[in-house]
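Recall the central idea of this unit: under ordinary conditions, the amino acid sequence of a chain determines the structure it adopts. In this exercise we apply that idea directly, starting from the sequence alone.
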Amino acid sequence: MTMIMTNSIYDNKFSAIVTALENGQYSCLYNETAYTAQKALTCLITPQVGDKVILFKTDESNIFITDILDRTLPSTLEIDTQSAISINAHSITLNAQNSINSFANEANVVISKVSFLTKVATLKANTLNVISTMYQGAIDHFNMKNESVTQNINGHQELQCNSSRKITKESDIYYTKDSILVADGQVKIDADQINMG
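Accordingly, the structure predicted from this sequence is:
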């Protein structure tokens, strides 16, 4: 006895090539027939022209790109969504051979313990809030540019380095209960005017 099934899900699912993108709609070509599709929510990576994709037709007017099978042109994989993305995992490991770039209008980081090891780190953010019980960083070269920085430290702060240089264009003001300066060699102060008292 032979059973013939019709209206299968595979009848509405086929591969195609992305030929154009305009206003969030993708033009795709399959067997010399053009289709207009939109990216499915589960297809996180943004398709590009030339990609071989899977199209799923829910009805005659709604076709979705569900998967990207192949990309012949070298390019950066991009995740573009208007929704928030949340990742919940026991542990996350991120390995990059060259660089890691992060761009955000606001970044909030709440971590109990951080161990950070990198040769070059670049961080750009309009607002960055970091709350950490313990922070350890080992960086060969670190460059940070900010409009303003505020640090509130309840306990102890210690800086250890071979040499330190600070350049302030305007005023540099210190408020302290006691101030102690210890130098093995010379203590040199150059100024047009020195006021003490």
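The longest strand covers residues 102-143.
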